[in-house]
Amino acid sequence: MWKQWLIAVVLVAAGAGSAVFFLAMDSSSTEQAGEEPRASKVSAVAPRLQQVRDEIRSVANLKALNAVELTTEVTGRVVQINLEPGQKVSQGDVLLRLDDRQARADLQVIEAQLADARRQLERAQRLRSNNSVSQSQVDELVTAVSVAEAQRQAARVRLENHRIEAPFSGVVGLSDISVGAYLQAGTTITTLDTTDRMEMGFAVPERFVGQVRVGQSVIASSPAFPDEVFRGELVELATRISELSRTLSVRA
């Protein structure tokens, strides 16, 4: 609003100054000639309000809003692959599975141990009613059941770690893994990126920091897509200005 009013004032002041100047010139010339003063032609411009659009141009980095490298958490042999480069997957889809026979067997053993511990605890609790067993014996069996339950949970997690699922919907990247390959824990099998929403990061010079606000519009273009214009809005502002570049990092 301040900029709009300033433009109007400057235009009006310039027009008035010109009019006074020309009137003075015409008046002096008529007095010298001793003639009747003639009407002066004055060009007037009506002031108008217009919106001033400030733009800050910067080079930005564009990346997927969600991007991860999918890795194995356990060692094992690949028995199933359900991924292709460029394939769109949904959250929860199984992309790769390792041989989990040993993990399943371990889980069955622990579940049997848990069932036995629960039976012993139930029997001890019945006998406790007539003081056939001590309270300490019952407490030990309660602890044994709790330990067995924790072991069962750990065994379930180990079993689940033999398959790689998509943590979110996205597009699968390149992969060199094939069925039969023996993978160590921590092996990267592929990448997964979202493509429907992107994140753009760029820097704003220090002198413009006071004019930058979350929610402001951002328009971006790329030589890779010359016919497309990408639109978004600022969502995050850094809290510190870089001492080296004197810029503020922002994200859209």
Automatic annotation (TrEMBL):
Keywords: Coiled coil
Keyword Coiled coil on entry: yes
Pfam families associated with the record: Beta-barrel_RND_2, BSH_RND, HH_MFP_RND
GO terms for MF: efflux transmembrane transporter activity
The CusB-like beta-barrel domain, residue ranges: 202-252
Gene3D superfamilies: 2.40.30.170, 2.40.50.100, Helix hairpin bin (1.10.287.470)
Cleaved signal peptide residues: none
Domain Multidrug resistance protein MdtA-like barrel-sandwich hybrid residue range list: 66-189
Coiled coil spans: 100-165
Gene Ontology CC entries for this record: efflux pump complex
InterPro entries, per database record: Beta-barrel_RND_2, MdtA-like_BSH, MdtA-like_HH, RND_pump_MFP
Domain Multidrug resistance protein MdtA-like alpha-helical hairpin residues, every copy: 101-164
Family (UniProt): Belongs to the membrane fusion protein (MFP) (TC 8.A.1) family.
Protein name as catalogued: Efflux transporter periplasmic adaptor subunit
Organism of derivation: Marinobacter nauticus (Marinobacter hydrocarbonoclasticus)
